[in-house]
Known about the structure:
Strand content: 5-15%
Strand order of the largest sheet: 4-1-6-5
Oligomer: single chain
CATH class of the largest domain: Mainly Alpha
CATH superfamily of the largest domain: Hypothetical protein, domain 2
Largest sheet: 4 strands, mixed
Number of domains: 2
Helix content: 40-55%
Shape: elongated
CATH architecture of the largest domain: Orthogonal Bundle
CATH topology of the largest domain: Endonuclease III, domain 1
Number of helices: 17
Number of strands: 7
Amino acid sequence: MLxxxxxxxxxxxxxxxxxxxxxxxxWRSQATPYRVWVSEIxxxxxxxxxxxxxFARFMEAxxxxxxxxxxxxxxxxxxxxxxxxxNRVRNMQEAARxxxxxxxxxxxxxxxxxxxxxxxxxxxxxAVASIAYGLSVPAVDGNVLRVLMRLTEDDSDIMKQSVRxxxxxxxxxxxxxxxxxxxxxxxxxxxxxxxVPNGAPRCEICPWGDMCLARAHGTFDRLPVKSKGKPRKIxxxxxxxxxxxxxxxLRQREKKGLLAGMYEFPNEEGLLTxxxxxxxxxxxxxxxxxxxxxxxxxxxFSHVEWHMTGYMIQVDSLxxxxxxxxFVEIKETEKKYAIPAAFGAYTKYLDLRIxxxxxx
Length: 360
């Protein structure tokens, strides 16, 4: 168990390993509070390689907290397009506005104050406080929980908040003076590159190889213990790609809820037949001329799974103004309107690129 293990003995080998093996990452080269914060929010639920180009573009467009606080939402969502979990960036902007109003545009060098900002939990607060400010506080994420549960052969359920809390307490007791940021990053790095979540861990290059209980007893494949969440709700949808010659219809989603404020193709609940899809288009005061069935697709959110079918429907361009719909030039869409990756299976039918695709 975690509490029975001499964690202090694990600190020095990890720090030496991290110093020699740490990856060169753009947010590490200049570990300012703002850069650490943005990178940690981006890295939630997202791979490092996918984040790198987003981080570079975000920093170029919004180089400081003031720029983030003042950014128009459409532009902000466009910068985040393809990263998913869009509440992350909305919360980040709200927190930036708080920092401008309450802390004169400087992120507070205080763990509890960081924790009070919108969208910042104990892990992100710990990362910013330790990496950017050198404060002796832990930063416990999934990687850290995994490596510590294996090291100490602790079979507690890491999905329980109580397990995270006692892991934070255990780490807080062994934080090396002046090197808390290195220890936290070393733990993250070990979990990302050696004690990996999928497949066998690379025990032969692990700095803890001779002290890891899971390795000694061959139990690494059973650790960490992670209880399953509730099954995702299935929602069936029909996506309508409605276009005239050069334009396509978009509509903006509600300001609250899933994908709030993003732009989407018109879609209907349920899997419609071609005739039902055409009738929906007629109800929009449009005159459909041709219809083509597109592929079925699915997209997984954290709690919901969309099962989609799609139709490409050509309409008479003369009905554009009569419909009151937002007809947008396809190339203009790439520049201005943030379309979530949930519709990625259908953007290719318009040669429309979203997210990182625009830059490849």
